[in-house]
Specification:
single chain; Rossmann fold; 9 strands; alpha/beta; two-stranded antiparallel ribbon; seven-stranded mixed sheet
Length: about 230
C-alpha cells in the first residue's frame, strides 16, 4: 500500500504499468494470476451475444477470453497507452475507470481483473460501473485480498531491464465491497476468496515453504454482482 496523494499515486501507477507493458502478456504469467483467473472463470457469466466491457484491461487477458466465449461486442478500457497497444481482442478506449466515457446502460457485462485497488474511491468506482451496466447486467471483478496486504505482500514486478517496481494499491475490506455494491443498487451474488493451500495450490519454487507459512491466508477476492 501507499500513502501517496491521489495524483501522485495515479502517476506512479501509470508509470509502473507503462514499464510493465512490454512483458505483460495476455495470459496468466505468474502462479497468483493463474489462481485468480481460475476463480474468475468459475464465476464467469454467459457472454454469448452480449456487450462486454473489459475494465482496466491491461494487455487484454479477459477481452480475449470474452471473444473466445462468444461476446457480441467487446470494449477494452485502460489508462495506459502501452498496455492498450497490446490489446488485440477488443475496441480500445483510453480512459480513467472512475469516469467512463460511455452512455448509461450500454454494457451487459463488466469484467475487471485486479484493477479495483487502483480506484481512488470504491463507492464511486462501483457507481460508475452500475451506471454503464444494462438492467440485469453482471459485474465480475477481482481484487488483491486485504488480508494479503496486511501480511505485507505487495504488487510488484521486474521490468525488462531487471528493475523491480511496486504498484501502489488501496486496501478495501470485504465490508467495503458489500457496502459499495449495495449503495449503487447492485446485488452481490457471490464473493469468493482464494486461500493459500486450499484454492491456491500452485507449483513454483519455494511453494512448499510458502504454503507452510501462509496456509489459509486469503490472497484474492472475486466478486460477482448483478444490476
Amino acid at each position: 500500500m501507499s500513502a501517496l496523494p491521489d495524483t501522485s499515486r495515479r502517476d506512479a501507477t501509470l508509470a509502473a504499468y507503462e514499464r510493465w507493458a512490454s512483458t505483460y502478456v495476455a495470459e496468466p504469467h505468474n502462479p497468483l494470476m493463474a489462481a485468480e483467473q481460475r476463480a474468475m472463470l468459475e464465476l464467469w457469466p454467459s457472454l454469448t451475444g452480449r456487450r462486454v466491457l473489459d475494465l482496466a484491461s491491461g494487455s487484454g487477458r479477459y477481452a480475449a477470453l470474452a471473444a473466445q466465449r462468444g461476446a457480441l461486442d467487446i470494449t477494452a478500457v485502460d489508462f495506459s497507452p502501452a498496455m492498450l497497444a497490446r490489446q488485440r481482442a477488443a475496441r480500445r478506449v483510453r480512459a480513467d475507470m472512475m469516469r467512463l466515457p460511455f452512455a448509461s446502460g450500454v454494457f451487459d457485462v463488466v469484467i475487471a481483473g485486479l484493477a479495483v485497488a487502483h480506484a481512488t474511491d470504491l463507492d464511486r468506482w462501483v457507481a460508475e460501473i452500475a451506471r454503464v451496466l444494462a438492467r440485469g447486467g453482471v459485474l465480475l471483478y477481482s481484487d488483491f485480498h486485504p488480508s494479503a496486504a496486511r501480511a505485507g505482500m505487495t504488487r510488484s514486478f521486474v521490468d525488462e531491464h531487471g528493475e523491480r517496481w511496486t504498484v501502489p494499491h488501496r486496501l478495501f475490506e470485504l465490508a467495503d465491497h458489500r457496502a459499495a455494491l449495495t449503495a449503487s443498487g447492485l446485488t452481490a451474488e457471490m464473493m469468493r476468496q482464494v486461500r493459500v493451500g486450499i484454492d491456491f495450490d500452485e507449483t513454483f519454487p519455494g511453494a512448499r515453504e510458502f504454503r507452510a507459512r501462509w496456509f489459509g491466508l486469503p490472497l484474492i477476492l472475486v466478486v460477482r454482482a448483478r444490476s
